[in-house]
Amino acid sequence: MYSQESIRWDFGLGGSPVVFFHAFPLNRRMWEPQERALDKAGIPWFAFDYPGFGESQPPSRPLHMDDYAELAFDLLSSRGVRWIIAVGLSMGGYVALSIVRRRPEWLRGLVLADTRATADDSVTVQKRRMLKEEILHTGSMEPLIESHLNIFFRESTRTTNRDRVRTVENWMKMNSIEGVITALDAMAGRPDSRQALQDFKVPTLVLVGEADPITTPEDAREMVRCLPHSVLDIVPGSAHLSNLENSEHFNRSLLRYLRTILNG
Ligand code: MLT
């Protein structure tokens, strides 16, 4: 599926209690505001690009959501990392939920941001199939870019923070078609994780942008209802990319949570 050499990753401060899982169709750089905050707090972190995203090589076969999680496990366990705190946003949350289902003992903490524990419904599966066909037909990321910018940021951010929006747009253009198509199929095929959340005993932070149109505050509340130990924080002034649209609030909440886990 991949060789470790085909995957691009960054290690902050040399160890990795905090592992960042990026959203679709972005890359590990979306976590830079959080990485800077963790560097300042002296907390080690790790972030990587999924196959075919950012600077990683495209996948050579279809992938299940569990394969993205196993990739992180392989990269880190081969470097002596025994446990992690997983932080996943949207598709990154789906990858983190795969770890909850299959390797809960690897998690000392979990942050689920702008994501959901349910599987795709038939309408969403169909939308992904149509998007995939359009990308394959046109050979371009354009259909993806337009639709995603509208859900990533509130309209006011799209007009006032053109630089940030342009950066995210450029990240979307960097991905390979194989990477994007493979991830669309993996998202459409992922299972429901609600039962695994009910069995998960580790304190969990759930974050969601107050105006997230696709993984909504109601999706976040549903995860909180499943989890035995969780805290919900609604990020004000933010749509889907809450870590970028209101980094200040997101970082404050993340650091507060990390301190309780790491000092507890
Ligand atoms: C993401 O932001 O990772 C995706 O939009 C999630 C999804 O399409 O379900």
SS summary, helix count = 12
Based on CA atoms alone, the radius of gyration comes out at 17 Å
Order of helices and strands: EEHEHEHEHHHHHHEHEHH
Mean pLDDT comes to: 95
Strand line-up in the sheet with most strands: 1-3-2-4-5-6-7
Structural class, by secondary structure, is alpha/beta
End-to-end gap: 38 Å
Largest sheet: 7 strands, mixed
Strand runs, count: 7
As an assembly, this protein is single chain
* Low-confidence residue ranges: none
Percentage of residues assigned to helices: 40-55%
Which compounds are bound in this model?
Answer: D-malate
Query: Which shape, going by the Cα principal axes?
Result: globular
Strand content: 5-15%
Spell out the blueprint of helices and strands.
Layout: E1 9-12, E2 18-21, H1 32-41, E3 45-48, H2 65-77, E4 84-89, H3 91-102, E5 107-113, H4 122-138, H5 142-152, H6 155-160, H7 162-174, H8 177-188, H9 194-198, E6 204-209, H10 217-226, E7 230-235, H11 242-245, H12 247-263
Parallel strand pairs: 2-3, 2-4, 4-5, 5-6, 6-7
Antiparallel strand pairs: 1-3
